[in-house]
Amino acid sequence: MNLKELASNLGLSQTTVSRALNGYPEVNETTRIRVAEAAARLGYRANASARRLATGRAGAFGMVLRTEAYGPHTVEFLGGLAERLFHDEIDILVSTVESAEDEISAYRRAAASKKVDAVILSSPYPSDPRIGILNDLGLPYIMHGRSEGSPAHAWLDIDNSGAARRATEHLLDLGHRRIAMVNGPKGMTFANHREEGYRAALASRGVTLSPHLIANTMFTDEMGYRTAQLMFERPNPPTAFVAGSMMTALGIFRAIRSAGFELGKDVSMIAHDDVFPYLNADTMVPTMSTTRSSIRAAGTRVGELILQMLSGKPAADIHELWPVEMVLRESTGRAPAGTQL
Amino acid sequence: MNLKELASNLGLSQTTVSRALNGYPEVNETTRIRVAEAAARLGYRANASARRLATGRAGAFGMVLRTEAYGPHTVEFLGGLAERLFHDEIDILVSTVESAEDEISAYRRAAASKKVDAVILSSPYPSDPRIGILNDLGLPYIMHGRSEGSPAHAWLDIDNSGAARRATEHLLDLGHRRIAMVNGPKGMTFANHREEGYRAALASRGVTLSPHLIANTMFTDEMGYRTAQLMFERPNPPTAFVAGSMMTALGIFRAIRSAGFELGKDVSMIAHDDVFPYLNADTMVPTMSTTRSSIRAAGTRVGELILQMLSGKPAADIHELWPVEMVLRESTGRAPAGTQL
DNA sequence: TCCGGATTTGAAATCGCTTTGGATTGGCAA
DNA sequence: TTGCCAATCCAAAGCGATTTCAAATCCGGA
To answer: The pTM is what?
Structure first.
């Protein structure tokens, strides 16, 4: 069933049917209803390719996943994004690449073949080459996270610096002085921000920073374990951890136990929680204190923002910084006596 | 830069340029090279919508994610799939829906608007309504998992029954008699298969099955915890667990510790591992015995199989059942004395 | 009754590609 | 020289929508 058939079926021209279906004003209300009814009855839907060709809009957004950088948070984000875009009948097109170069050539391809109207970037670096290239290509984009060293761009980010700062300050308030920061990969914007927040908190209390208490790792259970284990083996081990992710936290938790400590008593921890339905900080034992921000909600909002951008809002005006809430639970307790320097 | 411009730039017809670029034989090798070179130099890429309209092929596969059913394994699968499809320049189109009805209407839309050439189904039920509908729609599909009660369909599945059976038998060999099975949601094909395998193993050893040692839950850390905790509170608690997923296993592990037991000594566990890069059974403490099968590899293979199907291989011939390897580590040990009935 | 503007409808061009159905050329055997 | 077959290339017809430009119809006011 295509437009032509539908039109002849109704005894109308393709023009009128198309207009009726797309809500143009210059069509009689009764014919509009007649058309809509026939379309529904016959199961007509416009051919997506034809429409795209005619309108010049792809009706799809792209997202390129770098194999080494995606994880459980990716699908949460995607889920939120898709949820928002579903009603507008906009598709999400995902591809995966191995390297940064492949990612860029994926954008080039997408732009040249007009497969997508916009792309969503994630895992930004302070000076991110993708921005310049996408600007050159004229392919609209929005960044989940932000890239401070780069020219103006649309972004949505959470307040990583503030989150790390609050978490660290809280641990300081509890008397901890040797607080480890198990951060994400070195060089990524969000990791920098978290380190800034961490440093700022220590500095504000006059606590000197021990470089060996800062680690940069992938957000995996395993790396969390190894990192914490190494720290426990050194002199002056930490009495508290600020963990970059729940995965990391699980690993650190294991290391804490392996070292014979009890979480929430001997050693404290606050982890950042992206809010996964299958990993609940509230039901762990002990329950986990977190800084939390729903990555799914971020996906939904990013969808909204891109739509705004495509309907004219300047990218330079699209900056959204989400506050991060801190939820204190059992994994944080007073520093054990004698460890406070 | 479109085909017309490129052609006039080269002093050739669109026909010839198109053929040269698409590898048709009736074009002189020297002109083919000339065309390819010019296309590369000018950055020409065929407009995807136009090509799709002309060829009738969408160049994309669809995957609908049900919000309640996706999780960390989803993105792994997607990653593997995308990797295979990248080279063939086939896009993956993901959408999320809330309910089974929405999922079906998503297929209807996709079929009517010809957005995708095929779809990938996941989380099948023994008698899955999607199959009949997709057959009616004439939209090719392949199932990750399978649907035994349904008509012939293309699928790739892992040997869940065999995996559960081997895991259970191994625990029996170690002397365990009260073995709990913490399975996936009731009614799903894979969960049925696992229960079959579990029952078969018990039956083959003449061990009577205790219904309260079988649980059906979502694959979350939390549910694993709660389920195991409940089991420990009842009389005759299990001395071993067969866990449906690594997430579940983490929760069960916590419950084991909370109950004052030691994993691998007082209580054993074998978990099913979909192989996540960020959750490594080999580096847990204690290391986790698993039945494992890479879900990423399954994604890659499913991509391959769909391509075969679209190039003519009958769906009814596409059945692939992957064996599951069992990896024994420290979480499984002999049943403690006195528990063996 | 007739006119002018608003309201509805339609014919045809357009989007950028693929592909059908010829044309044109060159080489070689008759 | 002629004829025929390959090897190349091209003009034009789709693909199925949207959209421009124009025509038809309806209506109230003069």
So the answer is: 0.89
